[in-house]
Amino acid sequence: MIASKMTAAAALVAAAAGTVAAQTVLLAEDFDGATPTIGPGFTTSVTDAGGSSSDYFRVTDGSDISGTYLNATGNFFAAQDIDGIAGVVDNGFGGQGASRQQLRFDNIDVSGFQQLVLSFSAAESDAADGNEDWDLPDLVHASFVFDGVPPTDGDTGYSLWFDSMPNDTEFNAAPWLNSDFDGDGGDDLDDVPVTSTFASFSDLVNTNGALTASLVITFDLNAGDEDFAIDDIVVTGLVPAPGAPMVALLAAAPLMRRRR
N or C: which end of the chain has fewer CB within 10 A? Predict the structure, then answer.
């Protein structure tokens, strides 16, 4: 299905005809093969070889895990109760210790591109009791590291962040797209909920003249039914047409957010 996702990402760009001089797919990963379709392969900070159906951080077709994700196509990457995986260690990423792990794509050549479009499909399985089960500080954060420098608060490297929607107890909430990176999903008008059906999310990021980038997706999920699945990751490099504002591109993409 990666071809259709690449086509969809290209359509977002094409919808703003005349604003983009060049576009190139720099990374495409659908987790269905031994090698990525385009660009560097991925690495994970923990090797999940235990095969647990309830504690996982691995590529799956859904048959060996407890989470149920609708509209899945082939394999995808899924995570749940990460600190319960056999042999997992705290890699010092912060958060809840061993439950915070990373999926990474390193050494993406972004030289010559002024913006990147990150798009992927995401879903979160409904719990058996029908409740939403994300608790603070559960999170899934996709960010870019440009030229080896990790992004900081308010930096343009932040991209697609998902956090739980706050409630009175800070427990059993749904994951939402967090459009202002404040740690609370669902508290802004342009935040979007994640459901058990795979849906596409996209974001536009400025490279600020960087030569290389790493896409780092950080997961922090430390209990049963606290899960997330991701598929069809595409990074597209853009070169705007001379004098063309990028606002037209953003207006053409309902789920693509303008950098704040």
Answer: C
The pLDDT of residue 37:
81
The pLDDT, as a whole number, for residue 169 is 61
Separation CA 38–CA 109 (nearest Å): 12
Give yes or no for residue 11 having a pLDDT over 60. no
| The two structure tokens encoding residue 53 | 């159906």
The answer to whether residues 188 and 118 touch, using CB atoms and an 8 Å cutoff, is no
Residue 251 has pLDDT above 60, yes or no: no
**Of 129, 130, 50, 105, residue with least CA distance to 82:** 50
Task: Give me the chain's average pLDDT, please.
Answer: 84
Within 10 angstroms of residue 159's Cβ, the number of other Cβ atoms is 25
Cβ(220)–Cβ(138) below 8 Å? yes
Contacts 24+ apart (CB under 8 A), 189-193: 190/257, 192/255, 193/165
Q: Would you put residue 112 in left (φ > 0), alpha (ψ -120 to 50) or beta? A: left
SS3 category, 9: helix
Q: Which residues pair with 57 in a beta bridge?
A: 79
Contact partners, residue 50, CB within 8 Å, separation at least 6: 85, 86, 87
Gap between the Cα atoms of 260 and 257, Å rounded: 9
Name all domains of the chain by residue range, CATH numbers in brackets: 2-257 (2.60.120.260)
